Amino acid sequence: MEIWINPACSKCRSALSVLDAEGAEYTVRRYLEDVPSPEEIRAVLDRLGLEPWDITRTQEPEAKELGLKEWARDAGSRERWITALAARPKLIQRPIITAQDGSAVVARTDEAVRDALGR
């Protein structure tokens, strides 16, 4: 199990606390420092069953600079979104946990973290 975190994020710290309390074995990836490649983002999206716009923090200043709210959300635009996330990892929603069963979850609640643990 791996968890993508930003240490400054309270949701990420909360997720780590739940994992520790449950005695989970996991690897931490500080994705702002160890930036995921487009291929890794595609793989996580496949595991999540989501599209890149579903995990984009559209309220971030960088998102507003790019005008992401106006970008098309369709198959033809998917790679544009993935490229933006790889170039600006701060736009990736957090934390993301990749579960043992090959799935993944955006773990913004304690319940979501526990769900990932049960997979």
TrEMBL record:
Signal peptide: none annotated. The keyword Magnesium does not apply. It comes from the Bacteria. Keywords: Oxidoreductase. InterPro entries: Arsenate_reductase, Arsenate_reductase-like, Thioredoxin-like_sf. The keyword Oxidoreductase applies. PANTHER family: ARSENATE REDUCTASE. Belongs to the ArsC family. This is Arsenate reductase family protein. It comes from Streptomyces atroolivaceus.
